[in-house]
Amino acid sequence: MAEVEETLKRIQGQKGVQGIIVANSEGIPIKSTLDNSSTVQYAGLIHQLVMKARSTIRDIDPQNDLTFMRVRSKKNEIMIAPGESICWELLLNEFHSPKMKRCYSS
Amino acid sequence: FIHKCLLYATLQDEEEAVETGTGWEEWSQGKALVRPPDQMELTEAELKEDITRILTANNPHAPQNIVRYSVKERSYKPINVVDQMAVHCVLEGSLVHQDSEEARKLRVKEDFALLYIYDFDLHYKYLFVGFPQVNPIVDGGDVEEAADEDRPDSAVSRINKKEPKVTNQFNFSNRASQTLNNPMRDRICQTEPPPRSSFSATANQWEIYDAYVQELQKQEKNKEKQKGMHSQKDNGKSKKVMLMETQSEDVTKWTMASKILERTISQNTFDDIAQDFKYFEDASDEFREQEGTLLPLWKFQYDKAKTLSVTALCWNNKYQDLFAVGLGSYNFSRQGCGMLLFYSLKNPAFPEYIYPTSSGVMCLDIHAQHSHLVAVGFYDGCVAVYSLKEEGQEPVYKSTAKTGKHTDPVWQVRWQSDDMDNNHNFYSVSSDGRVVSWTLVKNELVFTDIIRLTLNGAVSEGTEGAQGGVSSGTSFDSHKQIDYMFLVGTEEGKIHKCSKTYSSQFLETYDAHSMAVDTVKWNYFHPKVFVSCSSDWTVKIWDHTINTPMFVFDLQAAVGDVAWSPYSSTVFAAVTTDGTVHVFDLSVNKYEAICQQLVVDKKKTKLTHVEFNPIHPVIIVGDDRGYVTSFKLSPNLRKKPKPTKTINIPKSGLAKLANVLYLPIVRVSIK
Predict the structure, then answer these.
(1) Name one GO cellular component term (chain B) (predicted).
(2) DSSP code at position B454
């Protein structure tokens, strides 16, 4: 667990990271570095997206599984790393390049 | 219907005798004469008197003088003939004529008892209607039965289920009555509804697959449990194990996800570098005929390693993005702790594995097949084997003073092929002059001295110190193809070619350098060629059958390390303490490096080690600041021998080098 905490800190300290959300398999946020309302909103929305994406991948081949997802938009980017019972989300802002990053891992 | 019956009347008085035959004198006289006390006294003559009695069919009660009014004559007229019938008894019967309508109906019902009554002329039969036995309510008796039919409102209506009741046409009256209707009242009771929850799920292909997999796992667990139950009866333990499993599963999932995330962040942050790594090819190489460049890629650094210098580098064969860095110090006076780090190219920000050590790491080697095993040699003379699969920061095996550790720093370790018992083993060389073979036997590290280096010649273990001082081994390499042959470089500048089987003598000795030989390396392709470098500023290429070097390169500064490239037999790289990386390609230019590049700040940092990546065109360079920098080789540096149809690559590499080698030896000075 301590390693995970450290990793979290390191990621948070990286350039351009807006926030990190850790949610459980049902989309309920466990940890977050953002404010409550945003956290809840992101967690709920992204959870659906992840479920859909995962369902798609696994429907095609049940032995396959979703490892990672990036959602890049005009303003930022969301990175999602789903695990079996956990979901990490990371939000990135990058002002230099047109790609803003938001990481969402779940 | 007239019953003819005989009435009996007691004769009390002759005078009171009634015409209607009241008694039998004869009968009474047949018996003994009993004289009652109050009998009338009569004379004999009176007793013998005959009294005539006549029996007639006249009804004594019938009136004799009935007078009826005759309307015709308008007067009362006496009626002569008077009905003399006297009804004594009336019984209503339930006989039905057999041919009648009712008889037919009853025959259908079969609800009767037949009584055959014959008339005088024996023609007629009369049906005696009996009552059915079914109904228990009926008390019995014909009368009631017959009366039942007359009573329409009787409770018993069993006969008339099929047909409507035959009602008496004379005295039937339908009487209805209403019972008291109780007022209706609603009574409602409501139970508490059972708790509901809506459940929805999808049944996709993968969910079904998951279910099957889980089922399989459960079955396997059950099998294991069954096996375990025989041996262990400790159920509490198993429960604990289960709990721990779930907890640790969570943690592992967390770590996995977080690792992935970190890598992607790195990917983003170092996006351009990653792109370069993969796709960038220096176009200017076309214009530069022979020269190439090194494109700096990622830089790996760890906070806690800032004071240490890189003492060893090794790529992992199986996971070619993973490499190991050994950190320690070359400074004799300043010896502190060391570190063993593993980095992945995918995550340059932070090492994958960190192992702090008590003594500085001087050398390391990753096993070629079992890439989780890492052999490490320390400054204090110990050797240790770390397993990356194990949790924890301690080595799996460690040599101690009792188990034959070296008394001086270990300069080189190399994994060898498994011995006959399939135990892993590795060699180490140290300044104390011993080349030791260490075998991993179960939980122990067993050592065997292979050879002892001395100044004058090799001495086996038996004889001690007879022939002079001990020579310090500073580098070591075992032959790629010939298993028993290896090279040892010494501090005196000599290189000894030795064999594992001959422990008493060197096969050959080369007077290589004037200072300590830092590195000797066999060529990957050519079985005879090896390269050596030293702090005397030179890099020399040898053919092991020839006593003198084939090529000598003077690099103007102490050479820290040299490495052959895995893709070409003629390419090698060397790093010097002035911060320059020299890349040579002998097939292109036998005298000069085709690339000399200053990669670090000249004054402050010295390069200590260099290694080629097994598959990617990348080299990593370690310096004495604890940094590891990676570079991409430009195309000119990567010229591979062209495989023709008959010769495959290794052979062509061999041919390539061979073509180059056997030419007059030239001493080259490089500026």
Answers:
(1) microtubule
(2) B
